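Section 4.2 – Deliverable D4.2 (structural model, holo form)

The reporting period included a commitment to supply a predicted holo structure for the target in complex with magnesium ion. Inputs used:
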Amino acid sequence: MSNNPFIRICNLHQRFGNQEVLRGVNLDIFRGETMVLLGKSGGGKSVLMKHLPLLLRPTQGEIFMDGIDITKLRERELAQVRHKVGMMFQNGALFDSLTLFENIAFPLREDRSLNEKTIRERVSEALANVSLADHGKKFPSEISGGMRKRVALARAVVDLPDCIIYDEPHAGLDPITGADIDELMKNLQREKGITNLVITHEIRSAFRIADRIVFMHEGKIYWQGTTAALQATTDPLMRNFIEGNPSE
Ligand SMILES: Nc1ncnc2c1ncn2[C@@H]1O[C@H](COP(=O)(O)OP(=O)(O)O)[C@@H](O)[C@H]1O
Ligand SMILES: [Mg+2]
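Output (structure tokens):
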């Protein structure tokens, strides 16, 4: 096994107007791990993760994916990168006029080389992966919030990515439904070797699913380590965060 990271983020900067959101992020991500990204709301977690499929381009810095600096790629060379990185957006971003089946098939239909039989097989498997095998004919308006998240997860996984970014997958879910999502994410890691990158505020979920926890503060990575290391840390900022004390 190699120690080369799957993704290496080097000195990443991003600004909007005169607001410096990322101020030199350095981070390695390893193949097959579940990494949980924590930090204050508005601190730049979503902005950081949107750089991986290059939905945003950095103002400075590099991102190496399998050793290639993806920030130097041209727009038409990015399809390969976007194919490696799936994204589950916060609100699910489902099309209301399409059935669940067609919502999940959507990313596959953009790839003209796939025939209908392959598409049907892949979508059926993705639906089964999220325990929605019998619900493909329903519309988004007919299902619960927890089910919508699962459909969004199925859509992120149907394209067989190496890595999935989950942006606040627990938001708006009750603890039990949130735990179901945790289990689905861990199953994808275990059974398909998918690298999970999870942004969340649910500290209990973080402890349950993370192989490694990363904490962002003031536009940089402030702390990283295992759940055991987080439990044991005496760093005041980290203790405040995990104990839920209001920060200054
Ligand atoms: N496309 C954008 N244009 C301008 N400002 C943005 C954009 N995206 C995010 N921001 C700002 O960047 C900061 C970090 O946002 P975000 O990454 O969403 O925080 P969070 O850690 O809660 O995910 C916020 O102040 C947000 O308003
Ligand atoms: Mg966010």
